[in-house]
Specification:
By secondary structure, this protein is an alpha+beta fold. The protein contains three helices and seven strands. It has a single domain, classed as Alpha-Beta Complex (Peptide Deformylase). Bound molecules: nickel (II) ion.
Length: 165
């Protein structure tokens, strides 16, 4: 199990570097991230969330297989959007409605170094957009109004303080 990086850790605001060589070490990281995501009951996990500032994330949404995305680029997003409740393993217990495109196209490399392109919709598209944001230091709470974000985060920080007390 890899240790999760959680808000308010400033690492979450850093942009990740491209993976220059998809080698055994990266494949091993991807496998351990999939294991960590499963243990934490998440549906997506980015490298920065386990303290690795490299452009990789993994997904496992219901009725889909685990997927690995290395050096992902979202090349298209649908005009149609919808709002849906999101969570994040770096914000345990915090959920908020976020509006995103219904569909997206992503180009990436898999854990074997093979490039692929994927047209995603529904939950998978949403997770791909959420995780790609992580690689640029963008968090789902950034999409909320300032008022709503402050309210949620102060509640989260109170819970965190109580947990540590
Ligand atoms: Ni997240």
């Amino acid at each position: 199990m890899l240790e999760l990086v959680k808000h308010p850790d400033e690492l979450l605001r850093k942009a990740s570097d491209p993976v220059s060589d998809v080698n055994g070490e990266i494949a091993d990281l991807a496998e351990r991230m999939i294991g960590t995501m499963a243990a934490e009951r998440g549906i997506g996990l980015a490298g920065v969330q386990v303290g690795r500032l490299v452009r990789i994330f993994v997904t496992h949404v219901p009725e889909d297989e685990p997927r690995v995305f290395i050096n992902p680029a979202i090349t298209a997003r649908s005009d149609g959007t919808s709002s849906y409740e999101e969570g994040c393993l770096s914000f345990p217990g915090l959920y908020a409605d976020v509006r995103r495109s219904n569909e997206c196209t992503v180009e990436a490399v898999d854990e074997n170094g093979k490039p692929f392109r994927l047209d995603a919709d529904g939950m998978l598209a949403r997770v791909i957009m959420h995780e790609t944001d992580h690689l640029d230091g963008v968090l789902f709470v950034d999409y909320l109004s300032e008022r709503k974000r402050n309210r949620l985060l102060s509640r989260y920080e109170k819970l965190l303080a109580r947990g540590r007390a």
